[in-house]
Each structure stands twice: as structure tokens, then as C-alpha cells.
Hints:
Layout: H1 7-17, H2 24-50, H3 55-63, E1 65-69, E2 73-78, H4 81-89, H5 91-102, E3 107-112, H6 116-119, H7 176-183, H8 185-189, H9 194-205, H10 231-241, E4 250-253, H11 260-274, E5 280-284, H12 285-297, H13 301-312, E6 316-320, H14 329-344, E7 348-353, H15 364-370, E8 374-377, H16 383-404, H17 415-424, H18 429-448, H19 455-466, H20 475-486, H21 490-493, H22 500-516, H23 521-527, H24 533-549, H25 551-566
Parallel strand pairs: 2-3, 4-7, 4-8, 5-6, 6-7
Antiparallel strand pairs: 1-2
Helix pairs in contact: 2-3, 2-5, 10-11, 12-14, 16-17, 16-18, 17-19, 18-19, 20-22, 22-24, 23-24, 24-25
Amino acid sequence: MRSMCNARDWWELSCRTRGTQTDGKHMAEFNNQESDAQILWEDVVAILTEDGLAPSTLAMLQSCEAIGLTDDTLTISAKSGFVRRNVERNADLIRGAIERAAFQPMRLAVDLNRGSAMASSVSAPAAIAQPRPAQPIPAATAPASTPTVSMPAHMPQANPAPAAHAPVTNQTTISREDLERLLNPAAEAEREPEAEQDALARRRKNPLVQDIAPADSQLTFDTFVEGEENQLAFQAAKAVANGSNGYNPLFIYGGPGMGKTHLLKAIQNYLAVNDPDRICVYRNAREFVSDYTDAMVDTSRDVKRALEQNYHDIDVLIIDDIQGFRGAAKSINFFFDTFNYLTSNGKQIVLAADESPAELGLEERVTTRLDSGVTLSIQVPNYELKLGLIKAFYERMKADAIENGQHDYDGTLDDASLEFMAQRAGASIRTIKSFCQLCLLEATSRQARGEEFTREDISQIATKKWGADTRTFTIEQIQKFVEQRYSVSHADLISNKRNKGLMEPRHVAVWLARELTDSTLAQIGERFGGRTHATVKHSIKWVEDRRHEDRVVHDKIARMKEDLMAGA
């Protein structure tokens, strides 16, 4: 295993090569050194992944680069002070993984990569893929069995090395400031960017900022299944996470299990990894109320003032299940004041509830605030979205089963089974996931016994989960529902009468038939008085146009769909 150069060795080497040709031998040594370090680091990350380390922490570790390896020390480069601090928090776990991968006691040193700011003032030797030395704690003060995380001096970034057989002429220059950094690594290690220091101080000071739970860390934009019913909310949430100012406040509403919390957590997870300087706090309404009531119980004015300051010192405030504010008048007042302060100071607010702002029954002054930005709904998933969800859940379960050796879930569901599962699935994303899990478990069991997993098996699982009246619909059921809702007769609904009172229920019934059944357009037309394919398409377009043009109509039709799915 090759020894890593120290800072002075690198400096002397760069001076010797200034204006001269570099031979391939030196290049190969440096390249091999970094290659060995990176291979070891990749093995370490793989071990930690198998150990179940939180995905958000794994993402930070994957962003680090292995830059040096000695007989007893692995040196990595962190892209920011935030990442480095997370490495420090997990030093014991990382050191243990290094020793398991290297089969010997090892230490860890961490270099803070300051990026292009230094590259602009330093021109590194082009032919040398140079390590950036770190200074681990000496063995005399830190035994080899203790993980050592240090903050070394920044070293100039190397340009990509050319092929070993192609000698090049190096023109290396270095400023006095950079030379001082090389010769005084301890001082440089303490110099974090001012903004980063401020963000860290704010995070440590604010008790509302909490670590993301391992289960919640899996709720990312990548794991969210996008469909027509949630597309606008999904895009808006991503825009907020990327710093857009056009969605403030962002209010997302829809029934339980529609994916609202997933989107809110995805924003939090994205910021934690990609923009940690923005202080993001997630609370549901009950936690917010609890924060306020606990502070009010305390007789100290300092406690009340601290609560207010903590909520004011937030860049992105996320509050879930806003309907939990009902009946909490004093907490609502505190929310009202917090809302006004944050929005007036350019801070982002994201909210979610089961109902639209107007339907929550809160004070008008609060309702107008909630509805003052962008309000978007997530609707009951249609067949296409259900199928997409089931396929995504199935693929993830299979992948997890293979990775973790869970043979209870290594069965196979063919396309026909997945499609039938989508027909029999319920309206909630949570229940759809559970349904998929049960089907895969049963399929695995039957296939292990040499038996076939059939449509009847799927129907039985659906019946046990949702009852005999599982939300699979016939066109006749939809027609009956619409007739009752609009108070029209069946004969009028399927007739050719074109009076205004019949057009809307007929269009809506056709649209619902397309959404909630697997019938073709021709089959739907046949059940509506022998209408043509083009006529059915016209009805569907009529509904879609009004859903997009008029929010009142959108909510009305969405509520009808939800009521139908719920058996109302």
C-alpha cells in the first residue's frame, strides 16, 4: 500500500516539476494511491448501506471523495462543513466500517474541500493527480482503535491527469496565501465560510431543528410516484425545494393517504442534503400546538420569547395536517403572527391538510392567509397512477428482498397480476402499498409450493382488506351514483337530450367511467346510449377543461370521485 505524501513533500515535488516534464512513474503512483483510497471508501459506504445507515447520511458520505491512503489512515474530502460535521457525528460507525473493509485498525481524516475558490488562485501540476493531505491526530495522543476526524489544510485541486505515457510541461504557480495554508493546516481548518458558520450556529441554537428519522429519510422526490392526480403538487414541491419564490405559501390538500406528507418530507430531505444552510423545520399541527401550549404553561417570559424567536429564525416552515388547528384558538393566533412574520421576511411556508383552506372552518383572517399563495390538491389516484404505484412498490420490495436476503418477498408478479391488482386496489396510497406487500407475500408462498398465484387469490386478498365491496366499479354503478347525486333518471342520463341540466351529469358520468373502470371508450359509449368513440372523448375533454379552468368545478368533481371511492 503506497504512502501518502505530506504537504511539504507535495510542495517540494511541485517546485521540482515547475517548468519541467513529468514522467509517467510519478503519475502512476499518485493515480494508484487515489484509486486504492477510492476503492476502499466505496467498500466502506457499501458496508454502511448494508448496516442500514440513514439514506440522508449515506448520501452525504457518497458525496465525499477519497483522496489519500496510508498504512493506517484513510483521508476523505468533504464538500462542505455541514457534510464534514455529519461525518464526525458518525465517526465510530465509519471507522468500524473502514476496519472491516481493510481488515486492520485504521483511522479517518477529513479534508474540507473548498472548491473553485482556491482553484482560481492556484494552478496545480497538470500531470500529477495529487492528494490533498490531512492531518490526523498523532498516534501518541489517539490510539489506532479510536477514530480520528481532523480538519486539514486545503490543497490545490489537481487537474485531470493525462495518460501515463504522455509527458507534459507543468506551469505551476502558487500564491503566498496558499503557501501559508499549506504550511499552517490547523489555522486553515478553522476558517469556515462565514455563511456556513452562521447556518451551523442557527441550527445548533434552534431546538426546532431535529434530525430526520430513518424511515422519513426515504420519503424523497425520487421515491414519489408522479401521476395526473398529483403532478402539479409534485412540481410545486420540487420548485419550493429548489428555492423558487413563486409558491408562498404552498398549500397542498387531499384525503388521507394521498401522498401529502411524502411531498412535505421530500422537501425537508432535499434541503437537508442539497441546501443545509436553509433552516427547514417540519411540524404537524399537533406538534405546533404543543410547542405553544408548553411555552404558555411556563411562567417565564423568556421561554415565550424564545419560542417566538425560534419560529422566526426559520427559512422554510412546513406544517402538516393543518386541520389539527381546529379548536386551538390561541395557537392559531401564534400561527397567524408567525405566518405574517415569515412571509413578510421572504421565508417559505408549506402547508398541508385533508381539506381546502375554505373547508377547514378556521377564522376568515387565517383562511385568507392559507389561500394567499398557491393551493393545489392531490386527488384519488386513477387506474394509471394506481398501476404506477403498484409497479414501483413491487420493484422496491423485490430489490429490498434481494439486498437483505428476505426470501419471503422474492416471488414474481407478472404484468397481468399487477394490472389486476391496480383494478382491485383501494384509494389510499398507504393501503395500496400494503395491498401490494400482501400480494407479493402470498405469491412467494404459493410459488415456493409450486402453485400458481391467480386473479382469484388477488380478489381474496382485496376482499379481506377492503371487504366484498372493494372499490372496483362497473359503469352501471357509476351511472347510479351520478343519477342520485344530480337527481336525474337513468333514461335521461343515457338519452340524446341536450338540455343544460343533463349535459354536466352525463359528461361527469362518462369521465368517472373512464377513470374508475378499465372499459374502453367504445364500451363506455355503448353503455351511454350507443355513443360514438368521438362523443365519449368529447365528454372526457369537457370535464378535463373545466377541472383545469375552474377550481370550484375541480373540487366539486374531485369530491364526487372521492365519495364514490369511499362508498358514499
